[in-house]
Specification:
Elements (H helix, E strand, L loop, with lengths): L14 E10 L6 H11 L5 E13 L2 E14 L4 E6 L2 E6 L5 H18 L4 E13 L31 E8 L4 E9 L27 E11 L6 E2 L2 H22 L2 H7 L2
Antiparallel strand pairs: 1-5, 1-6, 2-3, 3-4, 4-5, 6-9, 6-10, 7-8, 8-9
Helix pairs in contact: 1-2, 2-3
Length: about 270
């Protein structure tokens, strides 16, 4: 695929959230290392929240409930947030620039993590895009999104209304696995339900709850078995993240219409 050539940046892109996630071998939140990481993160993030969730683990002894500490950093004015747990870190933004700018900001967070908490191995890298497709009041979703992703129209005959319709396609790529989902209907959501409330960032797209809209979810990831992993350094993270980008962007162009891209989002 040719970078940028066939997929120019849209002036009014429907992106609501972009997320990069890195899963790694468990680390201890050793106090001195955590303080060092917080000092690094304070240069950019103004809001810090710490807590402990409950994590369910299945093993030979049955079900075990373990405490799962976490830290969330937020910079609402910049539309950016970071969620850290003992085995994963996620960087999210609602103000997405070009990919190069996003990757630079994201990998700066990864670098701070690697140099302080020293995760031993890398097991998964994911890149996820959510878009909110909001047609004009006199238009249909079919004007924006390929028909196979939308509800079966006869089910909504005689004035009935489709509240939710979820489609999912998984494609094996040279970089990993690409999951393309579409949540269509009168649901008023700007991103997939599992992402709601995770980062508490303001959205740039207003989503009405009185007419059909669609959330497009492009989730491209690489992973290896937890027992294996690869050495975790910034170069390894950068290489995996970069390879995930192009197929995800290409998928957006394949499932949206030329009318939407040229007349409504450009």
């Amino acid at each position: 695929m040719v970078r940028d050539g066939g997929y120019p940046k849209l002036e009014r892109q429907p992106l609501t959230l972009v997320l990069a996630e890195f899963r790694f071998g468990r680390v201890a939140f050793e106090p001195a290392a955590l303080v060092a990481l917080k000092e690094r993160m304070a240069r950019r993030f103004t809001d810090v929240t710490e807590g402990v969730a409950q994590q369910v683990q299945l093993g030979d002894a049955g079900v075990t409930i373990m405490p799962a500490p976490y830290v969330i950093w937020r910079a609402p004015e910049a539309g950016a947030a970071v969620h850290l747990e003992v085995d994963r870190i996620a960087y999210a933004t609602t103000m997405y620039p070009r990919f190069e700018g996003f990757a630079k900001d994201c990998l700066a967070v990864v670098e701070a993590l690697v140099e302080t908490l020293c995760p031993p191995s890398l097991h998964r890298v994911g890149l996820r895009y959510n878009d909110a497709v909001v047609p004009m009041p006199d238009e249909l979703l079919e004007h924006y999104v390929a028909a196979p992703l939308l509800p079966f129209s006869p089910l909504a005959a005689d004035g009935d209304m489709v509240m939710r319709h979820l489609s999912e396609t998984v494609v094996q790529t040279t970089a990993g696995a690409l999951v393309v989902r579409a949540l269509a209907g009168v649901h008023g959501l700007g991103m997939m339900p599992d992402l709601l409330g995770q980062f508490d960032l303001p959205l740039k797209v207003e989503v009405p709850n009185d007419r059909p809209v669609a959330v497009l979810d492009f989730d491209h990831y690489w992973e290896v078995a937890e027992a294996e992993g690869v050495p975790f350094d910034v170069d390894a993270a950068r290489s995996r993240l970069d390879r995930l980008h192009e197929p995800a962007r290409e998928a957006f162009w394949k499932v949206t219409t030329e009318f939407a891209r040229t007349q409504r989002w450009n």
